Amino acid sequence: MGRIISVIGAGNVGASLAQRLAEKGYADIVLLDIIDGLPQGKALDILQSSPVTGCDAGITGTNDYKDTAGSAVIVITSGASRKPGMTRDELLKTNAGIITEVTQNIIRYSPDCTIVMVTNPADAMTYLALKVSGFPPSRVVGLSGVLDSARLSIFIAAELKVSVSEVSSIVLGEHGQNMVVIPRLATVKGTPITELLPRETVERLVGCTVNGGAEIVGLLKTGSAFYAPAAAAARMVEAIIVDKRETLPCAAYLQGEYGIKDVVIGVPVRLGKKGIEEIVELELTDEEKEALKNSAEVVKKLVNTMFIK
Ligand code: NAD
Q1: Of the residues 33, 98, 221, which should be mutated to test ligand 1's pocket, given the most ligand atoms within 8 Å of the CB?
Q2: Mean pLDDT throughout 211-228?
Q3: Best label site of 95, 178, 204, 286, fewest CB within 10 Å?
Q4: Is 83 in contact with 112 (CB distance < 8 Å)?
Q5: 253-279: average pLDDT
Q6: Torsion angle in degrees (nearest 10) through CA of 104, 106, 111, 113
């Protein structure tokens, strides 16, 4: 096929993502993990579904970074996930070590790739991969708002009993408790939900969105969400690999946009074959701008704890 997308980490998110990408068929997939046999077994299983799904994409499982050579996009999902009662921040130290090692390995074999970071805490890990790789900020992007907005959208659709296709929403800021949900920008067929629902209901839906990940962790008990995260990451990969130039809320490095500097945080970006092709600056109210700045401060503190051992 020629084009390669690599997925690092063959756990819940990585394997689900590999399956989704293989079924799309726009590139061959390489699935890598440190556990011997895990990526090989899962890749073989996905491959054997291809005569049924009618997809011709190749999929290889490996423990060797050489097999990822020349990847156009590399999605990093390797690392620990949250256990019940654990915050994304507590994952920081463990995952920082993993992300440093993984990033050093992938850039050796794919110096021109775009990195999509999934591992949590996603904003801090995206920042770390950016610094370790030395890549331009356009080629390192993190999963945050596509997932958080999907969660808000499904809660709105369920509340108003409408199709998800009629709902549009956007969540900015940190991928965590300090995410910035902007209800006036959440719409159903173009009408803001603030005009469709009472204030208390809007606040409840915002709360459900902020706690969306934690609710699933509480139910699963041994891991965190992976179907929706894999779907969200696949949407980002698709925008890059097929050069859609689609505007999606993602974790991106800011250099003065929204009055914020030297931090990775969720903002709308245009994703295409060059990675982040534009950071889209929305007109925000003073209150929303303040919330975004506060959210950025939280990420900055997290990044500082990561670098101060
Ligand atoms: P998982 O435990 O099922 O899988 C993680 C995999 O990473 C395991 O197979 C493990 O062997 C592998 N791994 C660990 N160290 C490695 C290394 N050095 N090199 C290669 N592989 C390594 O976890 P999961 O549910 O797939 O979640 C993965 C990560 O994604 C977690 O950090 C989780 O919090 C995060 N996540 C982020 C979002 C988001 O929106 N950004 C959403 C869901 C999950």
Answers
A1: 33
A2: 93
A3: 286
A4: no
A5: 97
A6: -130
Ligand 1 atom nearest 224 alpha carbon: 25
- E strand or H helix at 75: strand 73-76
Closest by alpha carbon to 224, among 153, 119, 123, 113? 119
Catalytic residue among 82, 175, 270, 300: 175
By most ligand atoms within 8 Å of CB, the mutation choice from 78, 128, 217 for ligand 1 is 78
Architecture in CATH of 143-309? Alpha-Beta Complex (3.90)
Q: Full-prediction pTM beyond 0.85?
A: yes
Q: How far is the CA of 294 from the centre of ligand 1 (A)?
A: 27
The answer, yes or no, to whether any atom of ligand 1 lies below 6 A from the CB of 107, is no
146: tokens are 């596509």
Ligand 1 site, residue 143, Cβ cutoff 6 A: yes
Q: Residue 49 — φ and ψ, nearest 5°?
A: -85, -10
171 lines ligand 1 (CB under 6 A): no
Distance separating alpha carbons of residues 179 and 208, to the nearest angstrom: 12
CATH number of 4-142: 3.40.50.720
Query: pLDDT class for 8, splitting at 50, 70, 90?
Result: very high
Task: Please indicate whether residue 6 is annotated as part of the active site.
Answer: no
- Sequence ranges of the domains in the chain: 4-142, 143-309
Res. 182 pLDDT band, cuts 50 70 90:
very high
- For 9-25, the pLDDT digits (tens) are 999 999 999 999 999 99
Calculate how far, in angstroms, residue 223's C-alpha sits from the geometric centre of ligand 1. Answer: 10
Ligand 1 atom closest to Cα of 38? 9
Mean pLDDT of 209-220: 94
102 lines ligand 1 (CB under 6 A): yes
**pLDDT at residue 89 greater than cutoff 70:** no
Residues 6+ apart with CB under 8 A from 195: none
